[in-house]
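Methods, example record. To illustrate the input and output format used throughout this study, we show the complete record for Ig-like domain-containing protein. The sequence lines were provided to the predictor; the line carrying C-alpha cells was produced by it.
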Amino acid sequence: MRLPAQLLGLLMLWVPGSSGDIVMTQTPLSLPITPGEPASISCRSSQSFLDSDDGYTYLDWYLQKPGQPPQPLIYFVSSRASGVPDRFNGSGSGSDFTLKISGVEADDVGVYYCMQCIEFISTVVQPGKETS
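The corresponding predicted structure is encoded as:
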C-alpha cells in the first residue's frame, strides 16, 4: 500500500547572529512512502551547531502530524525524545544531518522539520497598562 503523503517539509530559517545568518535546508521536499520500507530525510545548515562550551550539537528533529502541533523526535542530533520509537534515528555532524526511519508506519505521516537550537530570536510579551 502506497501512501500519497508528504512526509516532510522544507524549513529554511534566517536567524540574525554575529556570525551571519543561519540557513537550514531539507531534502527531499516530498517523500512518498510505503509502509515497512525505510525513509531518509537530509538536513543541511550553513554553519555548524557544535557548542564549544558543552560539546553538544544543537540540531533537533520534529514531526507535525495533521491537525497537531509539532512534537519532538530527536534532540542533540541523535537522542530520541521520550516515547519516540527506536525506528527513528538521527545522525550527522558539522552541517550535514539525517533522520532515518527504519520501517515507516502509516502513523508516521506528517511534516518533518530539522531545527537549529543555538541562536534564538526572542519576543517579550508583557501585560499592557489600562488607560482611563
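Annotations derived from this record:
DSSP finds no helices and eight strands in the chain.
Residues 1-19 have pLDDT under 50 and may be disordered.
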